[in-house]
Amino acid sequence: MDYLCFRALCCKGPPPPRPEYDLVCIGLTGSGKTSLLSQLCSESPENIVSTTGADNIRKYWSRYYQGSQGVIFVLESAFSEDDLKTARNELHPALQHPQLCTLPFLILANHQDKPAARSVQEIKKYFELEPLARGKRWILKPCSLDDMEAVKDSFSLLINLLEERDFEPSRM
C-alpha cells in the first residue's frame, strides 16, 4: 500500500476537496437573504451588496439564473397578505423557468421567531407547493437568525440534492 493511500485511510491526509456549486439566492426585499447569507458565511452584512429583492430588480432575476445549479428562495414568513401574494407570484415563475425547472430548490421560511410567522404547513398550502412542484426536487424549511443550525441543516439538505444530481446518469 502506498504512503498516500495509507495516510488517506487513516484520516491523516487532507480532507477530500469539496465540490463547489453556483446557487442563485432570490426573494423579496426584507425577506432576510443578506442577513442569512452573511451570518452563514461569517461575513459582515456591510460587505455584501444586496440587490436581488428590490422591486425594480425582480424583473431581471432571470439574468442571474444562467449557470445556476440550485436555487435558494428566501421568504419572510411574517409578510403581510399582499407581500405573501407577491412572493408567491415570484416563486411560481421561478419554479417553472426553463433554466431552473430541473434544479433543486431550497425555500427558507425565514423569521420564524416573529409572532406573525406562518408555519411551514401554512406556507406550503398557500404557495400551492405540492401540486406546483410535483416531480421537482424542493425543500421547504423554517429558519431564523436565532437558529443558524437549522439554516445549516437546510443547506446540507440542498447540498445532498445537488450531489444526487451529480451522480445521476447522463441521458442521451
From TrEMBL:
Keyword Metal-binding on entry: yes
A Pfam family matched in the record: Arf
GO MF term set: GTP binding; GTPase activity; metal ion binding
The entry's keywords: GTP-binding, Magnesium, Metal-binding, Nucleotide-binding
Keyword Cell inner membrane: no
PROSITE patterns documented for this protein: ARF
Residues that bind Mg(2+): T34, T51
Top-level division of the source organism's lineage: Eukaryota
Gene3D superfamilies: P-loop containing nucleotide triphosphate hydrolases (3.40.50.300)
Coiled-coil features, chain-numbered ranges: none
Residues binding GTP: G27, L28, T29, G30, S31, G32, K33, T34, N110, H111, Q112, D113
Family membership: Belongs to the small GTPase superfamily. Arf family.
PANTHER family registered for this protein in UniProt: ADP-RIBOSYLATION FACTOR-LIKE PROTEIN 15
Protein known as: ADP-ribosylation factor-like protein 15
